[in-house]
Amino acid sequence: MKLVPMRFKGVQWHHNPKEIVFECDKSVKELSSPNGTSYIQNMGRKNMIISGTGELYGNDCLEQFDRLLSLFRQGGQGVLAIPKITPVYAVFESLKIKGEPKPDVLEYSFVFREVMEKKQQDKAENYTAKEGECMWDISYKFKVPIDTLVRLNPSVKRPDIVLDGRVIRLC
To answer: Three-class SS of residue 73?
Structure first.
């Protein structure tokens, strides 16, 4: 099975990262009482941190890195789609070149931070895809399972294909 490429805001990674780490934490406070007992207070989930490392290779590895760097410099929030993982709304927090340079190979690391904002709650029947959006983005935006979108839109052969301007059935 071929994995779809990692994507953020419509930009695809040329090669998927070698390693991806998901850090999921909660803010938990321990409160002491005068009688010697302690109480735990769950303050809620913190924003997830998605980090990883990878290699860009080929005679265009510097151009590949420049595309990622341009995406990083754009700033703003977008949908981060990673193979076999439910997409998340995130910001591109860090991008680094790692290690000693090698011919046609560039090692890098990245960090994304999840943005926990209210997701779109529209109950529209159809949606016109914006520039750079694919089925995964629309699935996340409207909380419609990807399997449902694929079933409702048989003309779309792969959920990772950019759908600029196409009308997609949501229900």
So the answer is: helix
With contact defined as beta carbons under 8 Å apart, do 139 and 81 qualify? no
Block residue for tokens 């399997």: 147
DSSP 8-state assignment for residue 48: P
Model confidence pLDDT, tens digit, residues 116-158: 865 544 456 889 998 888 888 888 888 888 888 988 999 988 8
Q: What gap in Å lies between CA 8 and CA 114, rounded to an integer?
A: 12
How far apart CA 148 and CA 89 sit, in angstroms, is 20
Which stretches of the chain are DSSP H helices?
61-74, 135-142, 146-152
Structure-token match 């151009």, residue found: 63
pTM of the model: 0.67
Which uninterrupted H or E stretch holds 32? strand 26-32
